[in-house]
Amino acid sequence: MAKKPTYEELEQRVKELEREAIKRRHVEEAPRESEERFREMADLLPTIISELDMDYYLTYVNNAAFETFGYSQEDFEAGLNVVNMIHPDDRKKAIKNMKKAIKGKKLDGNEYRMFREDGSELTFLIHSRPIYKNGRVVGIRSTLTDITKIKRTEKALREREAELEIKTNSLEEVNTALRVLLKRRDEDKRELEENVLTNVRELVVPFVGKLKESPLDPKQLSYIHILESNLNDIVSPFSRNLSAKYVKLTPKEIRVANLIKVGKTTKEIGEVMTLSPRTIETHRKNMRKKFGLDKKKGNLRSHLLTF
Q: What is the mean pLDDT of residues 295-304?
């Protein structure tokens, strides 16, 4: 006959059963407490957290989702399919990626445009992971970060850059046109100076020289000297410019060079400058040598026209 347990033994057994019951209750309550803790923490986050089933219907969203998208708890309970919330232009890419997540792939950094309840558009950066239960995928868990302001800023910057590029191109065109006009102005100025200098030397100076050689009384000769001095004052700036241009040439050679440029022959130049043709030829040879044309077939007038 079995020995009847004592009161102490029975009390010890009751305590052991109570401890086992408490442990079992903790084990049973742990997942529920863990889930409640997860949801409480998720509701504190500004980032949207969502869970989808295999047909892309929302099975869980945190408070940030309701605040951002504008849907109510009743809308959520009635059933919200994420596919219908995604912009049509991004929908094909989104479905393709969600199928990858269902197959167990982790997805990071995808951008989709989505619609709020009122129809307005937002852009999100989305990271997704498959949800496993008993070793198989049962849905998709995602985080959605609203980057609408960032995308708008990027767009505004791109538009601003495009505007600046257009303005820059316009300014470059204006600058090019100004450079052409300034170059033409300088060319016109030089041409005018050369024409004035050439005309004075060809049409005025020779006759002044002839007047000086003719019989004149002292008063007339004084007028001639004044006239000659004033003419020199008028053409001296032009002469300096031309001297700078033809830095290798003597003043007389510069006069010969200008007459050659306007197409005068050796004989005509001699008559204008009251010099013999041989002297003019000597000047021409000296100029060819100074310009490095003495051993070439280059035309002296053509060379002078390049200045």
A: 80
